[in-house]
Amino acid sequence: MNKITIAIDGFSSTGKSTVAKQLAKHLGYVYVDSGAMYRAVTFYAMQNGLISKDDFNVEALIFQLEKITISFKFNESLGFAEVYLNGENIEKQIRTLEVSSFVSKVAAISEVRQKLVEQQQKMGLDKGVVMDGRDIGTVVFKDAELKLFMLASAEKRAIRRFDELIERGDKVLYEDVLHNVVERDHIDSTREDSPLVKADDAIEIDNTDMTLEEQFDKILKLAKMTI
Ligand code: C5P
């Protein structure tokens, strides 16, 4: 069967990765979580004292970019690929609210984007890929056969994210999660390099009042019509 590239962009915590994983599994495609790559660079910066609440040493991070190797390894029991930073599995560490609070600043740096976009494009060379992020349909795979743009109300997204973090055992406040979601959207949408915008040819999906099943059915139908 003809393999295509599926680009899923949208605002923070719109459930992009959940539906992307489901879709990739159903189609036998590779799923790539591009946000995990920006989170991995952020985690590296935190571990190496390059970013904190009061300080961000952008030059040092740019200088050290060549020391950062990001890879994915499929975890059979989880059913998706986990992210590794210089050989270490950091899948859990990158999902904290602390990483979320820094990641958009790191993702606004052009040198970081250049490095990660290059790697993402290589991962998509053979098609048969579902990639989610902020600039997949506009920059990484401009020629993707199917582009989706996901949105939902900020409150609904914050509730979903809050529930996820609580389920993991993280101690967070709903207000802080909501603040982070809104702040990230603002930074991601207003940055100079590759801002979060809907590609002209992307199909918009507002899932504020959709169940996961309804959303998956709709997206699978779109994918089948395109393949
Ligand atoms: O998808 P996720 O919420 O994990 O992404 C974390 C952050 O990484 C986003 O808020 C954004 O700043 C950045 N990102 C990006 N471009 C992508 C994917 C993520 O700038 N393609």
TrEMBL record:
Main EC class the enzyme belongs to: transferase
Q: Which Gene3D superfamilies match?
A: P-loop containing nucleotide triphosphate hydrolases
Q: Where are the transmembrane segments?
A: none
Presence of keyword Amino-acid biosynthesis: no
Q: List the GO molecular function terms.
A: kinase activity
- Provide the E.C. number(s) assigned to this enzyme: 2.7.4.25
Keyword ATP-binding (UniProt): yes
The UniProt annotation places ATP binding at: 10-18
Which NCBIfam families does the record cross-reference, listed alphabetically? cmk (TIGR00017)
Instruction: List the protein's name.
Output: Cytidylate kinase
Q: Say which species the protein is native to.
A: Algibacter miyuki
Q: From which lineage does this chain's organism come?
A: Bacteria, Pseudomonadati, Bacteroidota, Flavobacteriia, Flavobacteriales
